[in-house]
Amino acid sequence: MKRGGRSLVSSPPAFSNDAKKLRVSTISNATGLQTEDAETEDDLETSGTDEDDDLTVCGPSTVATSSFTKRVEYKLSKVEADDLSKKKWKYTWEVPAADISNCKWVGTGECFLKDDDLSSNYGLKQKLYKHWLDVYKTSGGNDFHSSKQRWFFSLCNSYRDILHGEKKPFYHKGLEEDSNIMDAYLMHSLNHIFRTRDLVRKNNAKIDKHQMNGKEEILPGDNFLDQGFTRPKILILLPLRSIALRVIERLIQLTPANSKVNVEHIDRFYKDFGSEEVSSDEEEEQSKNAKTKKPSKPSDHQSLFKGDTRDDFMIGIKFTRKTIKLYGDFYSSDIIVASPLELMTKFGKAEKNKDTDYLSSIEVVIIDHADVISLQNWSFLTSVVERLNHIPSKQHGTNVMRIRPWYLDGFARFYRQTIILGYYLNPDMNALFNHHCVNYQGKVKSVREHRGVLPKVLSQVRQIYERFDASSIADVDDARLEYFEKKVFPKIKDSDQGGIMLFASSYFEFVRLRNFLKSQNASFCLLGDYTNQKDISRARVWFFEGKRKIMLYTERIHFYRRYKIRGIRNLIIYSLPERKEFYYEIVNMLEGSDDLACTVLFSQYDKLQSCEFHRSICSSQ
């Protein structure tokens, strides 16, 4: 289908002035063209409607209140788009993060965090604000304005890109903080969906009224350009089904009662994702076992991997006036909750017909627990983000006469908000934020000075830090391996001592070390990302009994298994772990009382490559 003489599926068309004028005969649903809010007759019952909740009537007019309207009405110029494409960001302001010690928020553009109005609804729709306030008070809260969840909602409601790598997760004794941030981004998602829906419905009502009056003239202006190519607007990316269960359950709880009279397919949902409910008998039994038996895994591991830990899931969620529909068709859903792995699987299946257009109109992306995703396969996440906001390959029943100009101009990625949340930052997260998040509204990120972890090393261990030189950050990997080959390995080879663990933080480093050790006919065993259980058990026995001199171990297998490796006398940390607690966990596995040693290799670029370097070492020293 063409608009203004330009094909919808070709290169991004220029949005002509003539195309901005909408004819009633074209935009009416009677034409057979489908709008984003198309629903069944049952969905359109008048009871429970909130059409009288005007988009701009949510308390006093403030920056926060009008952020949705300002965003959809902003017209990005070609010059601005070209400037954003250069990906050069200058952080011009900072504000202390009152709820996080030694932490501050820094941002581009003008500071907006001091513009909240005590008497406003913070940009929320009236019914959402009232329901959230009720939920907050029911849970024991008494000062909503000063609450962490309200404050983080203001960040989200600014529609800026957000990078928060200081979020204490629920599995690290951070349940309250994690839940507050989750509530904030879920309310932001609901607010965005409901406001988008109301805008479309109000325009439909105006068009219907215009047509009923028998008027044939053209309706002028951009006010009726209110849709994208497809309906889905929110994409939430999570690592595990158990976490998706937690997020979707809370999403349902935060939805006002009159909008969730029915929740379709809830039984199927619990069957697929499990339930966090534990009976009192089970809790009592678990408590008894905890007292009589010391757990073999750290508490954070037990909490994270409780429940369904599969990483293949994708579910569409549609909101109608009275119903939440789980397992909706992706093209008719408002929110898609998925793992990067499952989306990559969908991409592979859709490669022939390129049927991934449901990602073409995503306006808010939330990547929660990015640190866990980084220990799965970060390249999958990057590929998903790269697939967002492309011009669709097909016309999916959308009324093209109501598509917003910035979609047709190929500017959708400049309007997309991306929120990245994690326990820590690494180079991959920073690269995603710097190179794939080009929101015209700007960026906000958290910056923190960290306490070190050396005091948590319990063993009396000599900790030696050996620095190697690299000409550039691109040469660090080669320089690290060369230093190991020439300076470290000869000492190992000439020594009769066994019990040497060689720790690598990435699978790429693991492969390079494995190949080198093979070339030297070294006595070693492997505990890698893809080692099967039988080989793991055999390797652990061989290493403990001294039948293998070296054990090659990766951060990823430690994250998933948390093995207590016995027989370690000498630890060589080829590259620092990204998770700070892994440093002391691994060092504390050293056994014996004679001349225990830990050697750490690092370069001047490790501060850039491993954000945990300062957390783990420098701040302690």
Automatic annotation (TrEMBL):
It is found in: Nucleus, Nucleolus. Residues 1-55, 277-305 are annotated as: Disordered. One of its GO terms (cellular component) is small-subunit processome. Residues 159-444 form the UTP25 NTP hydrolase-like domain. GO terms for biological process: maturation of SSU-rRNA from tricistronic rRNA transcript (SSU-rRNA, 5.8S rRNA, LSU-rRNA). Keywords: Nucleus. It comes from the Eukaryota. Belongs to the UTP25 family. PANTHER family: ORF PROTEIN-RELATED, U3 SMALL NUCLEOLAR RNA-ASSOCIATED PROTEIN 25 HOMOLOG. This is U3 small nucleolar RNA-associated protein 25. It comes from Gossypium tomentosum (Hawaiian cotton).
